[in-house]
Write a structure and sequence with these properties.
This protein folds into two domains: 259 residues, Zn peptidases (Aminopeptidase), CATH 3.40.630.10; 113 residues, Alpha-Beta Plaits (2-Layer Sandwich), CATH 3.30.70.360. Helices cover 35% and strands 25% of the residues. The protein has ten helices and 16 strands. The strands form four sheets. The protein has an eight-stranded mixed β-sheet with strand order 1-2-4-3-5-16-6-15, with helices on both faces. A four-stranded antiparallel β-sheet has the order 10-12-8-13, with helices on one face. α1 packs antiparallel against α3. The radius of gyration is 24 Å and the shape is elongated. Bound molecules: zinc ion (2 copies). One zinc ion binds next to loops.
């Protein structure tokens, strides 16, 4: 496959995927598209893990370890603001995180590897549903991904706006944070706003709670550790001259250290209960869910990807801070050694980073990313450079 033809084909795939975004666990057209391409390459993709997941194994022409490469396939419930020809044709859905690009890069690599077989061992190309919020990676693992597709190492690439086009950031350990989702309801007693002494005001209690929660990171978490507590929803009241019965809040919490997560879970509850007690209202709901665990690279495998990328002539940053965003590849990295790396998407247009309605994947990464996958296939961790 010549370079420019390969690029043009990946670009067409990427633009088709961008036009046909599908949300988590609904990636039916996407899954059909991916499987059809893999079959064209002469592969026999396995389908159905986590509903829409696709896995294609490719065996090289000499013995070696087995590697798993992951691309995510799902889009987001965002109304696209772009007006270019490949804009979303699915109302209210958009590839605003570049998973269209990740899927196309891995398809491009699969085509090259299937045609040449010029690599040691085996590569499992994993096309995963539902990276956004619904933990498609965990569902695939729960459904036996690693039993069906045993492997020695796992890797994923994610485009990264703000990092120069084609530049990598490879972290030795923490890359992405863990999450906690917390829903709370404060129940008071509604009354006429001119007669507050006849009621119990949940809005005042909720307001105090928002402020008090900000003391957690500032005063209780070890300053050498990292955490974020954000109240992202606060709903109360309908009527201009009435104090409502209740207020609801959603709190989004991020951290790396599991002990910090436990501390935040306990102390948010203590503070919410304490403020409600002091305010004479009731904490009638405290629904705390631990979300994705933090994503930790394995240092040896991170160093290996960095070496492979450098040998490709790509600049690699090794000292970049992690992100407080989260990623379900964390579940795979809990099971197997490997690395999750950022591939620079170029300078973010003003305000058009990941999950922005004006975002678009940078097509220049298609060649860079697929060639990096091929290079990694040709040189697995623990084998000498050839
Ligand atoms: Zn995303
Ligand atoms: Zn993403």
């Amino acid at each position: 496959m010549s370079g420019s033809n390969a690029f043009e084909e990946m670009r067409q795939w990427r633009h088709w995927l961008h036009q046909h975004p599908e949300l988590a666990f609904e990636e039916h057209q996407t899954s059909d598209f991916v499987a059809a391409r893999l079959e064209e390459f002469g592969l026999a993709p396995h389908r159905g893990l986590a509903h829409t997941g696709v896995v294609a194994s490719i065996t090289g022409n000499r013995p070696g370890p087995t590697q798993l490469f992951r691309a995510d396939m799902d889009a987001l419930p965002i109304i696209e603001a772009n007006d270019f020809a490949h804009r979303s044709q699915h109302a209210g859905k958009m590839h605003a995180c570049g998973h269209d690009g990740h899927t196309s890069m891995l398809l491009g690599a699969a085509k090259t590897l299937a045609a040449s077989r010029d690599f040691p061992g085996t590569v499992h190309c994993l096309f995963q549903p539902a990276e956004e919020r619904l933990a498609g990676a965990k569902v695939m693992l729960d459904e036996g991904l690693l039993e069906r597709f045993p492997c020695d190492a796992v890797y994923a690439m994610h485009n990264w706006p703000g990092l120069a086009t084609g530049e990598l950031a490879v972290h030795d350990s923490a890359v992405m944070a863990a999450t906690i989702h917390l829903n709370m309801t404060i129940t008071g007693h509604g009354c006429h706003s001119a007669m507050p002494h006849l009621g119990r005001d949940p809005i005042l209690a909720a307001s105090q709670l928002v402020i008090a929660l900000q003391s957690l990171v500032a005063r209780e978490i070890d300053p050498a550790k990292t955490a974020v507590v954000s109240v992202t929803k606060l709903h109360a009241g309908e009527v201009e001259n009435a104090i409502p019965d209740y207020a609801t809040l959603h709190c989004d919490i991020r951290y790396f250290d599991p002990d910090v997560g436990e501390q935040l879970a306990q102390r948010t509850r203590d503070i919410a209960q304490g403020i409600c007690a002091a305010s004479g209202v009731t904490l009638s709901q405290f629904d705390l869910q631990f979300g994705y665990p933090a994503t930790f690279n394995h240092a040896d495998h991170a160093a290996h990807v960095a070496q492979v990328a450098s040998a490709q002539g790509l600049p690699v940053q090794r000292d970049r801070y992690p992100s407080m965003a989260a990623e379900d590849f964390s579940y795979l990295l809990q099971q197997r050694p490997g690395a999750y790396v950022w591939l620079g998407n170029g300078p973010a247009q003003t305000g058009a980073g990941l999950h922005n309605p004006g975002y678009d994947f940078n097509d220049k990464l298609l060649t860079i990313g697929s060639q990096l996958w091929v290079a990694l296939a040709q040189r697995p961790h623990g084998t000498a450079a050839t």
